[in-house]
Amino acid sequence: MKARQKRLVFVGLALVGVAGATSLALSALQSNISYFFSPTQVMANEHPLDAVFRVGGVVVEDTLERQPDGLTVHFDVTDNAAVVPVSYTGILPDLFSEGQGVVAKGRIGADGTFYAEEVLAKHDESYMPPEVADTLQTAHVDGVVEQTAGSLAPTSTTRSPTQ
Amino acid sequence: MTINWFKFASPAAFYPIAGRLIPWFGGIAAVLVLIALYWGFFETADRLGGSNPQKEYYRIIFVHVPAAWMSMWLYLVLAGWSAVGLVFNTRLSFMMAKAVAPTGAIFTFLALWTGALWGRPSWGTYWDWDPRLTSELLLFFLYIGYIALHSAIDDMRRADRAAALLAIVGLVMVPVIYLSINCPDPNQCAALHQRSDPGSIHPSILIPMLTMTLGLWSYSFAAVFARLRNIILSRESDNAWVRDVVAKEAV
To answer: pTM for the complete prediction?
Structure first.
């Protein structure tokens, strides 16, 4: 009599626990997604006005400016459709660089600038030793040279050593 | 030639086999892990190039990725033995599942821990509610939940069945972890993990990584068999053969 019922209760509890954990995780992921906005959405004013949210995209080449205080940086983030200017005071992660993906957490100011509290860099899936990457890069650059002669010197490797 | 597989399903028959296999798996594990550590830490490039210019700290990949793979694989093994136990009602399957859980939990913790240490310098944070990090953390809770549920129930058979059911239900997490990087455009997602592809990892990095994976796999066999032998002895302690074994090994 009792054995089967107890088993049923235990199984039920386990199922409820897993369902709870899953729904918590899913809602965490969901809210994570809902607090994430692309520059296009920010420019369309879909973002919350007075709350912290996240903006993600690629750092536009040649927009990284270090301010005189030495800690504040300005840069632009784009999703190839719209651009959001970002201001951040703090230490940038190691993988932060122009042309790479970032996720910035903060709020938007009255001037339309995104004031970030936290800037996270994304990493790339490619794991190559520098020599191999250079060979690939050269091949890529050569291909670009053939198409547009010259005018690529600043784009290839302008990684500022200032971090 | 026919092998009676059910013969090995008897704890009494498997106990000595596991004992003989442990030194082999342990030895292979030690050799492969040492080779992989030396190879990964001293014989690979000091830094990465191209679009992913990680410095020395990229080398955590030689521990982090194999540990993460093992955490998922061992969960499949855990759920697999649980299912076999539920279906065939074989004692050894439940013991096997119980023996796998702590090793799986250790690898899950190792993956999360090494990932946090790597994430601080490269991403800029120890922890983020990235889909993959979140789902891997849930896998850790599942392992812990399996162990806790099993030890919370006094009746061994009932504990086996309840924990087995939990393991099977939790199986939903493994594909979630696996698919959690499937963002169509990485720059449109908050996920920090990128879609991964062994093809974009240079062989000089991939091969030591796979060597480490084989080493950890071999270690898992040795550790699980050692734990399994203890479980067999304690659960079959009423049987004459166990008393014989204990008497012999005590000498």
So the answer is: 0.83
